Fold each of these.
Amino acid sequence: MSSIEDVAAAIRSLRPRKVVAFTGAGVSAESGIPTFRSAGGLWRNFRAEDLATPEAFARDPELVWEWYEWRRQLIRDAEPNAAHLALAKLDDALVVTQNVDGLHLRAGSHEVVELHGNIFRVRCTREGTTSDAPGELTEMPPRCACGAMLRPDVIWFGELLPDDAVARATQAMREADLVLVIGTSGVVYPAAGLVALCRGATVEINPQASALASGCTYTIEETAAVAVPPLVDAILESR
Ligand code: OAD
């Protein structure tokens, strides 16, 4: 385990040019959005098989939509926290996120790969076209103009990640001098496998060591909003 100060000093001497932030639900925890697997996490109270699989949607689309609507409302009421805002100061860094909450974009990060989609977009189940989700749902489940059902534009268990997102994340990880691994349990693949592609330094920021911790160069057992801002400052100072 390392201190924030020690890792900040290491970053200053590393002078990383290519930086990737790989984030999970923990980066949004201090915005008040529940994670999936830590205390109070969504998968401790709900069964993923009932809500986040193509089979669940085929069985009961209204239930799935209600759950996503509830989550959308939580996220709408939330604000980006100090970790999102700090990362947005790194103009040339790539954020690779497993989150569907869109908070990195709202914080001002321009280069964001959303591996698991975005909860504020919908996709037509017939045509595959995506669009912004309606602000308020007037019918349940909502339908496309073509008459087919719309679904949230997120990745469910058993589905493939978008090729373009994986390709961009893979290349960035391979080229990175520094990857910040923030707030993920590192147990959901293929996303979690991306970190091992980095040949540079990797820093985990997580109050509880994750499945990826042993493969990281440094681990900081702190929350994202506490540890990310000083590390971002160290990156900016090293330039
Ligand atoms: P998890 O809920 O599995 O893990 C959240 C991680 O955040 C845990 O390791 C916590 O210790 C850590 N954490 C909690 N509070 C934190 C804080 N304030 N600062 C930093 N870290 C904190 O969430 P993910 O790893 O994102 O997939 O889960 C991966 C995927 O599993 C999600 O994208 C989702 C889920 O099923 C899909 O929906 C496809």
Note: The pocket of 2'-O-acetyl adenosine-5-diphosphoribose is lined by residues 24-26, 29-30, 35-38, 41, 52, 98, 116, 155, 183-185, 188, 205-208, 210, 223-224 (CB under 6 Å).
Amino acid sequence: MSEFRSASTPGVLLEIAVGLARDAAATARRLRAEAIFDVETKSTATDVVTAADKAVERQVIEALRELRPGDGVLGEEYGDAAGEGSVRWILDPIDGTVNYLYGLPQYAVSLAAEAGGEIVAGIVINAATGDEWTATRGGGAYRGDRRLKVTGPAELSQALVGTGFGYDARRRAHQGRVLAGLITRVRDIRRFGAAALDLCAVAEGTLDAYYEKGLNPWDHAAGGLIAREAGAVVAGLQGARPGLDMVVAAPPAIFNDLHDLLVGLDAAGGA
Ligand code: IPD
């Protein structure tokens, strides 16, 4: 236990993250079963936050304060609390809140540890099914005990590509235009509704690639590490780091073609 307080190796940080995320997923599941999900809206009328999002985030923050009082925490609902040291936790208490609201079994707890500005450990748990994906920087990505390695198709035209849409109507209009330009160039498109799980799907090969504009750090911190450690390229456009403008995740064989298509469609532009 004292190791949990003092050591900040990727392995120790992952072990902490796994324990906290499992408890958080159990809380999210229980609150849904008890139908405790008063709903408020955030940036737009369709951007919802449930009482469960807040309760799960509070639970993780309180546990981290106990275990790792010097660390910072960035959470989707309560924002950024700076720490004294170089470790910051990045949390999405329920990624896929709209799925959660509707009872679609595609919502997740996503928890990553950043050290010295790099994501070094992360876990994504589908709270509805209990499926878990983990990774440490340089240590590989796993689905449970199975190590993941992306393969994917040799050509973009054969790729099943996931994406998502923001909550703002003007952003969605632009994203719709980009999608219209892309859908004729790939095998097909999927929109599952939880970015962290989409990135794990790329790691696992249930999606060949994924892109989205407008993701926040809590949406892609853990899933991005998992996809990268499975061998995918995870980046923004034109040399940028993955971020608010764009996150693209794809196996090396198709990354450049997808990247160039997205640049041509001005996918990082618009609102
Ligand atoms: C959303 C989901 C969705 C993505 C949105 C995100 P939230 O996160 O990940 O798939 O398309 O951009 O905001 O609001 O459910 O935590």
Note: Residues 76, 92, 95-97, 164-166, 193-195, 212, 214-215, 219 surround D-MYO-inositol-1-phosphate (CB under 6 Å).
